[in-house]
Design a protein that fits this description.
single chain, Four Helix Bundle (Hemerythrin (Met), subunit A), 6 helices, 0% strand
Amino acid sequence: MNVEQQALMSEEEILAAPESDYMNEAQLAFFENRLMELYQSTSDHIERTRKEMTQPMEFSDESDRASSEEQSAIALRIIDREQKLLPKIRQSLARLRAGDYGYCLESGDPIGIPRLLIRPTAEYCAEVKEQLENKEHRYRD
């Protein structure tokens, strides 16, 4: 572990911090590190999965082949989902560097530490996200 990582706040410290400390330098450093680690681990997982899928497999019977095809289909869906996450992480890092990270894109209100710990790429506070999802469900039906 390098010196920078040792200086990072823990989740417990961030959760215990007063609201007046919201998105201070230490918290921004924590989330920048979290986003960069998420980006790297997601990229690594995509690459590993792609390599595994290109390995030729030998099948002893049709059920093995069918099982392998189903696993490949699931892996492709996961890769697709993770590939969609990478641009969101880059956007979050750009907002962090611009000073907008942690604030709702629509209302400007704080998103909140607990929500960002669960979903570091969150763009909206819980209330606005709920409204957007309700609109989406209404128009979809």
